[in-house]
Amino acid sequence: MEKNQITDDKKPAKRTHAKISILFKESYGRDFSHGSLHNISKTGAFLFINTANKEASKAAFSDTSKNAAESLVENTEKSATENSKQINLYIKLNKRNRKILAKVVWKTKNGYGLQFIRSSVQDKKLVDDLIYFEEQKNKTKQTILHNIFKKVA
Prior knowledge:
alpha+beta; six-stranded antiparallel barrel; globular
């Protein structure tokens, strides 16, 4: 675990509830798959892979090639240590396409727990911007809902 993953009082980093559609692939892979990031923090996120997305990805590729989701599942099942698997996440942020490198920390049947790999200050700012824009979206939705309830009451 990185030093900056844990706060001063040994609590996990604050999570922002979000659902962001992304493309991803293994760091040296060729094929992309669709997924969504959930529960984002400064240190990582949960990569959700929908079963419908898996089926759609299978249909999009020929029988001889595998998509990124299948390849990731296969490789993490083969290796005893899943921590060595790295993936690239492609996110549209503020009308620009961005790439974030992440490491697979754990897996479930629905997806993967990811730890962001930040090699520069720019990578850290990118994750901060992602969280900021999601929090602003959530605040806007809450304000609209609050105004609706105020008018109804």
